[in-house]
Design brief:
There is one protein chain. This protein has about 375 residues and is of the alpha+beta class. The chain folds into two domains: about 220 residues, P-loop containing nucleotide triphosphate hydrolases (Rossmann fold, 3-Layer(aba) Sandwich); about 120 residues, OB fold (Dihydrolipoamide Acetyltransferase, E2P). It is built from nine helices and 20 strands. Strand 7, helix 5 and strand 8 form a beta-alpha-beta unit. Helix 2 packs across helix 3, helix 2 packs parallel to helix 4 and helix 3 crosses helix 4.
Amino acid sequence: MTGSLKRRVYELKTKTIIQLEHISKSYDGQMILDDLSLDIHENEFLTLLGPSGCGKTTTLRILGGFVKPDSGRVLFDGADITSLPPYKRQLNTVFQKYTLFPNMNIKENIAFGMKIRKMPKSYIDDKVAYALKLVGLEGHEKRSPDSLSGGQQQRVAIARAIVNEPKVLLLDEPLSALDLKLRQEMQYELIRMKNELGITFVYVTHDQEEALTMSDTIVVMNQGYIQQMGTPESIYNEPENAFVADFIGDSNIMDGVFIHDRLVSIFGAEFPCVDEGFGDNVPVDVVIRPEDVELGEPGKGSIDGVVTHIIFRGVHYEMEVTTPDGYEWLVHSTDQFPVGTPVSIHVDPYNIQIMSKPQSEDEEAIGVEE
C-alpha cells in the first residue's frame, strides 16, 4: 500500500451487462450525481450503499428509466437505453413501498404484467405457481394483500417482478419497513432467489450490515461520488478513506503522524505498521477496527489507558478505553475488563490502516488519496 493515488479495480469473470458512463444529474441546481461511471456484471449482487442524499436511489432510478440523466449514457448489453421508458427495459424494479393492487388477490397481482402482454392463461398459471413457490407463498393465491404481513407483501412484490423474467432486478430499500427478524429472513431469501434465478440484482440500502451480508460487490457512495467499490471483505478490511471506514462498521479514526515506512505515531505513541510510501513525518489518518484492539497489562503495549465504559453485546464486550490524551478507544473483546481497570493497548501492524489526509473539500467528497 502506498500514499499515491489508489483506485483498486475489482473485476468479475462474468461479462458486463450494464454500463453507466459519465452520468450526471442535478435537481434545482444541486448536483446529485457527478460524472459517475459504473460497470455491473451478469449474475452479480451489487449493492449501492450510502447515507441519505448520496445519490444511490437516483442511480437506481436512472437504471430503471424513471429518471433521465442530465448527461451520460446507460448501456445494456452494449445497447444505449438512456432514453428508453421503463417498460421497454429488461429490468424490473421492487420499491420500498410494495404498491400492490388492493382490489386484486395475490395471483391477480402477480399475473398483472403478463395479462397486459396477453400471455396465454396456462402460461400465466404456471409462472404464478412457480413464483409463489419461489417466495414461499404457495396456497396464498386467493388472499388479498391487506391480509398479509409486511414481509409477505414484499414477497408478492418480488414475485410480481420476477415472473417477467428480467435480466436485472432493481431493489430500492425493499426491506427497510420490516422489523429486524423479518428483514434478516428476507435477506437470506433474496440471496437464495438470486442464486436460483441466475439474474443480476442491483440493491439500494443505507444499512451497512445488510450490504455486508448480501452483496457480491458493494459500491459505497457519498455526495454523488463513488468512494470505494469492492467485495464486502475488501470494503470492510481495506477502506480507502476515512468516510468508508467510518460508514462501514465501527472504527477508531485518529490523527497520526507517519514517521517513516512501517512506523506511525498516534497521540505520541509509536505503532509499527505495514504501510509504506507516505513520506517522513507526514500527517495521516489512522483507522483501527475495535475488534483489532488488544488489551493487556499496563506497560506491555504501545500506549496505556483506563477502561471507562463497558457494555455486553452478547457475542462480545464493547468497551471504551481512555488514554492520557483524552481519546476514547472503542474496543470489542470476548474478554471482560471492568470499568476502572488500567490496561495497555496493542494492535497488530497488519490491522493498522493508514490514509492520506484530504487536501480539500473536493478531495474529501471524491475520496481521492494523494
